[in-house]
C-alpha cells in the first residue's frame, strides 16, 4: 500500500519479556522524539466483566484530542486495539495535518494484521485499510509498535482513556460483529 509504512519493531531487536522496561522506553522515545507533528496513540482495554473500551490520544501542531469509546461486550483486546486505530483515523480525516502521520500502538499484532492488507477480511480491518488508503493520498502514514507499560506518556494516557470507557455502563454496548 503506497504511502503507508508498517513498523513492528524498535530500532534494535528487543524481547518485551526479558529486556528492562527502562531500556524499552528509551528505544521507543528515540523514535517518538524524531516524529514530526501529528501523532496518534491508541489503546484497547477489557475488564474482568468482559466489557471493552478504546482510548485514543491525538496531538497535532495546534491541537490535542482525547477520545474514549465503549466497545462491544466480549470483544477481544486485539479488536479493541483495532477499533482505537479506526477511531483515530476517523478523527484524522477531519483534522489539518502535516505531511506525515504516526500511529503509535502497543499492539504489534494489529500492525502485523494490517501489514498483510491483502489478507484482511474483517470489517474493522477493512475500514482501517480504506481510511489509510484515503489518507495516504495526502500524507505519509506510519504505524509504529511501541512497548506497553514502560511509562511512555501518550501511551499511558491512551491506556488511561481506554480503561474507564470499558467500564462505562451509561453507554450501551454495540453489537459484536464477526465479518
From TrEMBL:
Gene3D superfamilies: Ribonuclease H-like superfamily/Ribonuclease H. InterPro entries: RNaseH-like_sf, RNaseH_domain, RNaseH_sf. GO terms for molecular function: nucleic acid binding; RNA-DNA hybrid ribonuclease activity. It comes from the Eukaryota. Residues 34-167 form the RNase H type-1 domain. This is RNase H type-1 domain-containing protein. It comes from Araneus ventricosus.
Amino acid at each position: 500500500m503506497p504511502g503507508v509504512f508498517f513498523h513492528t519493531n524498535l530500532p534494535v531487536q528487543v524481547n518485551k519479556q526479558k529486556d528492562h522496561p527502562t531500556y524499552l522506553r528509551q528505544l521507543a522515545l528515540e523514535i517518538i522524539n524524531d516524529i514530526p507533528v501529528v501523532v496518534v496513540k491508541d489503546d484497547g482495554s477489557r475488564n474482568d466483566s468482559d466489557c471493552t473500551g478504546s482510548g485514543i490520544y491525538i496531538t497535532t501542531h495546534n491541537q490535542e484530542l482525547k477520545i474514549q469509546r465503549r466497545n462491544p461486550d466480549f470483544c477481544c483486546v486485539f479488536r479493541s486495539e483495532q477499533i482505537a486505530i479506526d477511531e483515530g483515523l476517523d478523527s484524522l480525516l477531519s483534522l489539518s495535518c502535516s505531511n506525515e502521520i504516526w500511529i503509535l500502538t502497543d499492539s504489534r499484532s494489529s500492525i502485523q494484521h494490517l501489514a498483510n492488507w491483502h489478507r484482511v477480511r474483517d470489517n474493522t480491518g477493512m475500514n482501517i485499510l480504506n481510511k489509510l488508503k484515503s489518507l495516504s493520498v495526502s500524507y505519509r502514514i506510519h504505524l509504529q509498535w511501541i512497548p506497553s507499560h514502560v511509562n511512555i506518556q501518550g501511551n499511558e494516557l491512551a491506556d488511561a482513556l481506554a480503561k474507564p470507557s470499558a467500564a462505562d455502563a451509561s453507554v450501551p454496548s454495540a453489537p459484536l460483529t464477526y465479518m
